[in-house]
Every structure is written in C-alpha cells, then in structure tokens.
Amino acid sequence: MAAPAQPGDSPGFKKPPALLRLKRKRPGRRSDPAAEAAAAPAPRGPSAAARRRNPFSSLDNAPQRAATAPQPPAAAPAGGDPSAAPFWQFLEPDCEEKPPQRAEPESSDILSLSQDLHSPLAAPKAPSSPQEEFPADWSIKTRVLFLSPQPFSWAEQLKAQEEAQGFAQHCRAAAPSLPRSVQEPRLSSELRCAFQQSLVYWLHPSLPWLPLFPRLGADRRMAGQACPWAQDQALQQVLMSDWSVSFTSLYNLLRARLCPYFYVCAAQFSVLFRAAGLAGSAVPTAAIAPTTRGLRHAMSSEGIEFSLPLLEESRTRKQKSSEESLETESPGGGSSVEDAGEPAPSDDDDDGSFSWLEEMGVQDKVKKPDTFSIQLRKEKHEVQVDHRPESLVLVRGSNTFTLLNFLISCRSLVAVAGPQAGLPPTLLAPVAFRGGTMHTLKARTLSGRARLQGGFEDVFSLEVLGPVLPHSLHALTLLLGPAQRGSFRALLSPHEPSAAFNAAPPQEGLQQELPPCGLHPKTWDQLSQSPTLGKSSLRLLEMKDYCYSWKV
User: Rounded to an integer, what distance in angstroms lies between the CA atom of residue 194 and that of residue 204?
Assistant: First the structure.
C-alpha cells in the first residue's frame, strides 16, 4: 500500500517504497552501472551527453570513474560492435585539458586501445626480433593506421604542383631517394611528391558508384546499387570483352617483366599473378584462393598442372609428427616388429582389390562397395578444405598462360545472380595497363592524446584507406622512416581471403636482375624473397631506431 501524501505535495504524488531509495555510493565498492542508470533521476539539460564516459578507456575500472571527471561524447558504432568504430574514438581530443590521473596497472597506450579495432582472428604471436627489413606480405590491406609521436603535417594538403609531380614520377617509374632523416618534413617537396607517388594504383573496371574491392562477401554492400547490365546480355558481353583485353594486356606485361604482379578479384575467389623473380620463383606463378573441388577438377580437365602447397605442408607436418610419436612409443627408438610386418594402407586397397575375399570363400556373401563410394571416400579430404586457406592452388611456368585462357572462359568467374551478376572481376595492378584507370588511396591525418601511465602523450596518426597493395605498403614505410625519425607503428587490416597468398612456392635459388617494372629497388628486393608468413599476414608493424619488429 502506498504511503499517504504529505501536505504541500502534488495530489498525484506517491512516495516510492523504501526498497527503491537510492543508497549513497561508498568508496571502494563496485556498483552495477546499469542498475545505477535505471535508478538515477532523469538528467536535466543538454549536459547529460557530456557526462557519458569514453567506452574505450580502461574498461576494467570504468564504472569507478563514471562519477568523476566528465568524458567527451563518443558516437557509438552501429550494432554495438566496438571493432567497427572509427579509429579516432581511441584518441583523446587535444583541445580539452584533463587533469593527470593515477597510474593504472594495465597498459593503456594507443596500441592496446586499438586492438579491438582490428580484432585478429587468432591471438597474435610474440613480436619478432628487430630487423632492418620486414617480410613480404602478399595479402591486400583494406586499411593501414600509422601512429607516431612526430606529426604527419607533411602529408596534409599537397600543392597542385607536388601532386602532379607525384603522378609524373609514378608514370616514369622514378625511384625517390631520401636521406636517412628529413629535418623539416613539411618543407620537403621531394618527400611530399614521393608520398603522392606511393598512393597510386590501377583498376579495371572503373565504376565510381560501386565498391569494386573487396569482391568476396560484398553482396550486402553492393545491394541496391544501379547495375544496368544485370538483365542486359549484350551489355554483359561488351563488359566481358573489354575486361578480357585488359586481362590479356596485364599478363603480357607480366611475361615481359614490365608488371611485377597483379590481382584478379572475382566474386568467388581471387588470383595473384607474379612475375618471374618474385617470391623466390624463377618462373611466373599464379596463386588462387579460396578454391573448391569443382574448380580444381575443371582446371585439371583443361590440362593445368597445379599444386596445393598449404595442404601438402599440412600433410607433411602430420606425417612427421606421427612418425615422431611412433618412435617415442617404440622401445629403442624404432618401430616394433608388429608394425614393421603390417603394410601401410594405400589407395590400391580401396580400388576394388578384393582377392582376399575369394581366398576366404565369402566373396558372394559380402557386399562390395561400388566405385562411386570409393571415389567419394578418396575425395573426402579434398571437399573438407574447400573455401579454406588450405585450398590455395599454385600454378607455375607455362601453365599460367593456360590458366589465363581458362579464366577468360570460366563460367564461375562471373556471378550469375545477386548484386554482382554480370560484373567482371576487379583487376588491381601497380602499373598502367590497357583499359586501366588510375586511382589513389585515401589518406587523412589526425592528432590526439593517448593515455599513458604518467598521464597523456600527444600522438599523431595517418590513416590510409583502400586496396593497399604490397608495393604501396613498403613504399610508405620507406617514406615514414626518414619523415618520422625512425619511429612509428602501423596497425594493418588485411583482407582475410588474400592472406593465403603468403604460402611459399618451391624454391629454385636463382637471383633475378631488377627489371624496369616501376618498383623501388628496395621494394623489389623485399618482394623477391620467399614468403615466410604461411597463411598468416602482418597485423602490427613497428619501427624503432630504423629497425622493424612485427606481429602476425
């Protein structure tokens, strides 16, 4: 029963029961912020939004500081996923002065605050030992965030002459030469021209209203966009004919070693063509990922010889581990007599060799498996790797030309339904080719303050968006070293399906001379090394004292 109203109160006013009365918050006691928000009175005025705390700062002890210093407003990402938030939410605006706070037990620098932004699929490995060069990464990056204590003001608002000079240097394949340290980066016209040069890439087809990369899993982003070719067969044939000309032009440049590599990004899979001399191979190579058993069977039917390097490596590793376990279990380090007398199972036993049933006289009483069942059992392991990194297919030498003709006539190369129906694959290249359109990566700078144990520190960032190709990533690091005095960090967001391209092809041990392909000599030296990342890709790249360390 509600308490009677007191004199002077509104006629409709009723006192709440004692259980709903607010209790004074005692120091050292952890309270539930959700319960406090439900029981607290409604805020007055527009200052309630300013009192909301930053959801990305010190998540463990955030409820205790909710009632202290006000935090700047931060727009919450759609769906409540912190990994989809813009990177500037992890920085404190430098326009607002804040009192220094006590040291916290957890590391709260900008790197730890940005881990949720990239959310790696697996726990990152320990950082490598510092080296003068980082390994080649053949995965395509969708976003790269550079962080440094030195400002990136030199990358802001390029002059028209500097932008034009950067395009000219790219078309002429001019390799910029910078000193080890640039004293005044903002006044260095050579540095700013080289920065513009490093952002250039070539694309086909060019449809400004459609996001043409990535293509795998892009149906939702392309839904609702204008696709006039979807129901027009004649227009689809024109687009595909024009695409075939551009594709052939890129392959001819690759064979002549005038184009170091290029990507073919389709709706179901991607292909990486590399010229001779790259990735430790003396012949041209082509890597396809992910693949299916149907695609591999179609390639075999066309006479294309290929290998599955990641699958073969996994089998070799399992076989080696099983042999080591047998040696450990057997006394004296060898196999037992029973194991030695028992032959290893082979595929011949599954092909219908049932002579042992005839010797026992029960061949008519036992139902033999048919050929179809035997074939399904053999192909079971192949089906299990479909759409996975282990399904990577590697084509070498003259088979790459056969693969070119196969892809031009391949039905699964172009989607027949959905938002990508009738749209040719995306061609990405570092150099100009017939039908290609010049594009530049989007770059923007931001300054902020990172929370440290002793207070705050000014941190400057440079974000690069778009299909960041391997040569662009290395070219940017060549500029950031002298411009940032040999100290910066890079948070990398790779396109996951392209990480399988880091599988190492067979080694020939032959050194190739630098061709006039438009790459910086140091970039060519890096990309010519054999890949060492396997099916992983770089997630963090850090330079200290002009030496690199990284995580995958």
Answer: 24
pLDDT tens-place string over residues 402-433: 999 999 999 889 998 889 999 999 999 999 99
With tokens 């299916």, the residue in question is: 292
Residue 502: the pLDDT is: 94
Model pTM greater than 0.90?
no
Mapping DSSP onto H, E and C, the string for 55-78 reads CCCCCCCCHHHCCCCCCCCCCCCH
Helix-helix angle 470-483:189-198, to 10 degrees: 160
Q: For residue 225, what pLDDT band results from cuts at 50, 70 and 90?
A: confident
Distance CA 206, CA 204 (A): 5
Q: CA nearest 260: which of 547, 549, 517?
A: 517
- Angle, to 10 degrees, between the axis of helix 160-171 and the axis of helix 189-198? 60
Q: Is 265 helix (H, G, I), strand (E, B) or coil?
A: strand
> CA-CA distance, 106 to 453, in Å (whole number)?
9
Tokens of 464: 């690069």
Buried b (16+ CB within 10 A) or exposed e, 42-51: eeeeeeeeee
DSSP notation for 131-159: BSSPPP--SPEEEEEEEESS--GGGSS--
**Token output for 227:** 């696709």
CA distance 390 to 408: 25
CA distance 410 to 403: 10
Instruction: For 6-64, give the DSSP string.
Output: PTTS-TT--PPPGGGSPPPPPTT----HHHHHHHSPPP-SGGGGGGPPPTTS-STTTGG
| DSSP letter assigned to residue 188 | -
Written as six digits, the tokens of 263 are 């990507």
Pairwise CA distance, residues 358 & 398, whole Å: 49
- Residue type, position 527, single letter: L
Helical packing angle, 399-408 and 233-255, nearest 10°: 170
Confidence at residue 316, expressed as pLDDT on a 0 to 100 scale: 74
Q: Which of 262, 156, 270 is nearest to 519 (CA)?
A: 262
> For the chain, what is the radius of gyration of the CA atoms?
30
Q: What are the extents of the domains in the chain? A: 112-199+441-551, 219-238+255-311+384-435
In this structure, the chain runs to a length of 552
Element housing 452 (H / E): strand 442-452
